[in-house]
């Protein structure tokens, strides 16, 4: 091996000039000695591909990063030092020249100033010096030397003072400007020298590393690759020997050669085993025949599973046309035979409305990629929209040819409908919370308006023109109170007084009231279930809900029509279409009209407050909102079905009462305002409402104590204040509500009577829409008569335990 290596080296030296001339176009031969040209040529040819370029790039990149980092650090330190020298020089100018320049300026000696400034200019790096006199006279002294600049400079301003008779007087200012241009030039020259020297060193080191890697590793790897490419099991060549000069110790390359020789021996043994394997090929063919029979049986099992699974399975050809669909698809209203021979996009309902989704899906199919949970919409045999989710896996033949897709599909229609109902319910709850808060604040304002207008009306009885205006204000306030009541009903913040009621009897009585309201052109028909259960609901609110639904139906039938009131019993197990009712027994009241119906695009918004399709001035848009809030607060729900041109049906579901319906009570006749002489502790945080209540109670003969919050009221109680009734708002600031205040007062004064008032109630005294037992509540807004009657009723009632 050693001789061969020497001969090869000799041959390389002999042909080096020609090789260099061929690969370097004569440049290397012209400028370098023959031996160096040969070495450079071999390295150049070797580095054009393989490990060399990557190794060179890595070395150069790392060296460049290190060089640039160290150079930047050195330049920064040099810059900091040079700038420090300039700063020190400027400080020395301030200490050494200001006194003498101030003396010359005081003496108005411009020649001396010019000489002194020239002396400063002779200092290194000083670019400009300027003296300005501070004086209240024309043409103050201004002497400058040098040219001022705004770039690459360091400036200092020193005040010039003169001491006369022990008094220091400012007489001018010295401006000194030092340039950094020389510093920058020095740093630039230094950087160029460092970078040039480092670049040369890096290049030489890199070339040396590349040459050593070639000499020690890559040339032997090329020899191994050539030997492997020519190896034949039929005629094995002699063992591979690398051309390496002795002596040398065994290294990784020798281990590779040994491993390769061992592999060749194994291959020769395997070649013999292959002949034996041919003998068993017949047995393998028999096994394959049996495997094909098992595959056919497996395919039949798959089809059996496909026909009995909850989803359905499908197959398509290379053109994505359905070739197989399991019979299970018919369970979901789809025609299996009509789908065979069509593409999925041809049967889709949303291809035009969502083109981007379909373009991406078709691109996936064209790329023959698997897909999961691709959702789209289609129509069943009855024309109803259904939602599908599809999974697919591409099928390829043994030769790699694309055969089509195979997958499964799931019907998500019920899931989508459930999610949509849930979103609608959450939206209505959010709107309800907002409207409840608005109604609360509005009721406080209406309380003052309705109360004070009564006082104004009493004073205007002899002035009819002003009394008529006051009546208009009173009517507007009443309308505002009605609107806030409807808002609170929608928000489920209206205290209800539910009891067992005969639904059929209430519907009949309400129908009698509807005849003059709806007019002669509307026919009213009732269809009442003979076995209708009793319902647990507030009868007045239920009657108002039916009237609101009937008025909406009348507006939908401007040319006349039929209104049907229907009752029935319903039981839900939690899986029906009425999503807000989980399970239980309910009484249904349905209001059906033959009007123009509701467009599909606004059907989901009809229960929102103030949403209306009527013209301006023809409604507030709170009728259906009130019905919705009343039904939900009662424990039931409301559902609507409508189609344009075919009328609307609204179904009200109320919880069933377990007992018998209570008998109707006669309406209570209105009484005159009752007076009294007791003392009432009024707790109200709103100043306007507080002033109104005190005025009204005073006019009724009562004495009042006043507090703006719970803490102030308790302080009055602890001070021994005497009173007969606690009249308190429920929602108050200060961390204590009306219920907590009443309980604290009763701990100090057992048996005290309490009357609550509020613009709306939270869960303080109302639970599940019902007032707590034994609680007296006066809802805002209220009038003087209502206030007097509720106070007398509370004072005359049984004292609390």
From TrEMBL:
Q: Is-annotated flag, keyword Endoplasmic reticulum?
A: no
Annotated signal sequence range: none
Q: What positions does the domain Histidine kinase occupy?
A: 437-658
Q: What EC number(s) does its UniProt record assign?
A: 2.7.13.3
**Residues in domain PAC?**
372-424
Carries keyword Kinase? yes
Record's keyword terms, sorted:
Kinase, Membrane, Phosphoprotein, Transferase, Transmembrane, Transmembrane helix
Its name, as the record gives it, is: histidine kinase
What lineage, starting at the top, does this entry show?
Bacteria, Pseudomonadati, Pseudomonadota, Alphaproteobacteria, Hyphomicrobiales
């Amino acid at each position: 091996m050693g001789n061969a290596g020497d001969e090869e080296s000799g041959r390389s030296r002999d042909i080096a000039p020609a090789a260099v001339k061929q690969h370097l176009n004569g440049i290397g031969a012209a400028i370098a000695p023959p031996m160096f040209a040969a070495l450079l040529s071999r390295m150049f040819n070797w580095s054009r591909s393989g490990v060399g370029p990557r190794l060179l790039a890595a070395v150069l990149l790392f060296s460049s990063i290190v060089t640039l980092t160290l150079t930047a650090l050195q330049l920064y330190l040099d810059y900091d030092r040079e700038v420090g020298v300039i700063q020190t020089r400027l400080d020395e100018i301030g200490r050494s020249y200001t006194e003498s320049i101030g003396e010359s300026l005081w003496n108005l000696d411009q020649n001396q100033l010019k000489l002194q400034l020239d002396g400063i200019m002779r200092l290194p790096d000083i670019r400009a010096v300027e003296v300005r006199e501070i004086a209240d006279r024309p043409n103050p002294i201004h002497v400058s030397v040098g040219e001022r600049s705004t770039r690459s400079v360091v400036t200092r301003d020193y005040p010039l003072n003169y001491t006369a008779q022990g008094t220091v007087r400012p007489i001018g200012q010295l401006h000194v400007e030092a340039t950094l241009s020389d510093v920058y030039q020095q740093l630039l020259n230094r950087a160029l020298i460092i970078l040039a020297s480092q670049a040369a060193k890096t290049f030489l080191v890199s070339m040396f590393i590349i040459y050593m890697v070639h000499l020690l590793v890559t040339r032997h790897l090329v020899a191994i690759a050539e030997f492997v490419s020519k190896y034949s099991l039929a005629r094995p060549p002699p063992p591979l020997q690398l051309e390496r000069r002795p002596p040398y110790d065994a290294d990784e390359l020798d281990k590779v050669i040994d491993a390769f020789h061992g592999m060749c021996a194994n291959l020769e043994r395997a070649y013999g085993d292959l002949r034996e394997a041919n003998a068993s090929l017949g047995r393998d063919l028999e096994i394959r025949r049996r495997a094909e029979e098992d595959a056919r049986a497996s395919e039949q099992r798959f089809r059996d599973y496909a026909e009995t699974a909850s989803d359905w399975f499908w197959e398509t050809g290379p053109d994505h046309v359905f070739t197989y669909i399991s019979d299970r698809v018919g369970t979901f209203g789809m025609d299996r035979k009509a789908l065979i021979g069509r593409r999925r996009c041809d049967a889709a309902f949303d291809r035009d409305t969502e083109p981007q989704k379909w373009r991406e899906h078709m691109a996936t199919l064209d790329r023959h990629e698997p897909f999961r949970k691709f959702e789209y919409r289609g129509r069943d045999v009855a024309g109803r929209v259904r939602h599908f989710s599809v999974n697919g896996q591409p099928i390829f033949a043994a030769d790699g040819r694309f055969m089509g897709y195979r997958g499964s599909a799931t019907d998500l229609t019920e899931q989508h409908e459930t999610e949509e109902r849930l979103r609608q319910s959450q939206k209505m709850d959010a709107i309800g919370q907002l409207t409840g808060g608005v109604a609360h604040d509005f009721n406080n304002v209406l309380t003052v308006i309705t109360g004070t207008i009564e006082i104004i009306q009493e004073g205007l009885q002899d002035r009819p023109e002003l009394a008529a205006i006051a009546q208009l204000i009173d009517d507007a306030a009443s309308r505002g109170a009605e609107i806030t009541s409807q808002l609170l009903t929608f928000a489920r913040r209206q205290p209800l007084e539910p009891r067992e009621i005969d639904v059929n009897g209430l519907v009949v009585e309400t129908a009698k009231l509807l005849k003059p309201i709806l007019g002669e052109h509307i026919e009213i028909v009732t269809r009442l279930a003979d076995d209708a259960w009793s319902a647990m609901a507030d009868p007045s609110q239920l009657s108002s809900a039916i009237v609101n639904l009937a008025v909406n139906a009348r507006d939908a039938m401007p040319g006349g029509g039929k209104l049907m009131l229907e009752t029935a019993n319903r039981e839900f197990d939690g899986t029906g279409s009425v999503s807000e009712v989980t399970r239980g027994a309910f009484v249904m009241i349905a209001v059906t009209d033959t009007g123009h119906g509701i467009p599909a695009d606004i059907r989901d918004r009809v229960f929102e407050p103030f949403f209306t399709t009527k013209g301006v001035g023809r409604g507030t848009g709170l009728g259906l909102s009130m019905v919705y809030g009343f039904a939900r607060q009662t424990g039931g729900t409301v559902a609507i079905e409508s189609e344009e041109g075919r009328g609307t049906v609204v179904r009200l579901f109320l919880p069933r009462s377990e007992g018998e319906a209570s008998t109707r009570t006669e309406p209570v006749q209105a009484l005159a305002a009752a007076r009294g002489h007791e003392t009432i502790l009024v707790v109200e945080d709103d100043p306007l409402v507080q002033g109104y209540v005190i005025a009204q109670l005073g006019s009724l003969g009562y004495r009042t104590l006043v507090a703006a919050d719970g803490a102030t009221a308790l302080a009055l109680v602890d001070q021994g204040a005497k009173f007969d009734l606690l009249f308190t708002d429920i929602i108050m600031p200060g961390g204590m509500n009306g219920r907590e205040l009443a309980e604290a007062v009763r701990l100090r004064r057992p048996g005290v009577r309490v009357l609550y008032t509020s613009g709306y109630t939270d869960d303080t005294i109302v639970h599940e829409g019902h007032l707590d037992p034994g609680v007296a509540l006066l809802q805002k807004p209220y009038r003087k008569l209502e206030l007097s009657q509720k106070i007398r009723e509370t004072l005359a009632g049984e004292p609390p335990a």
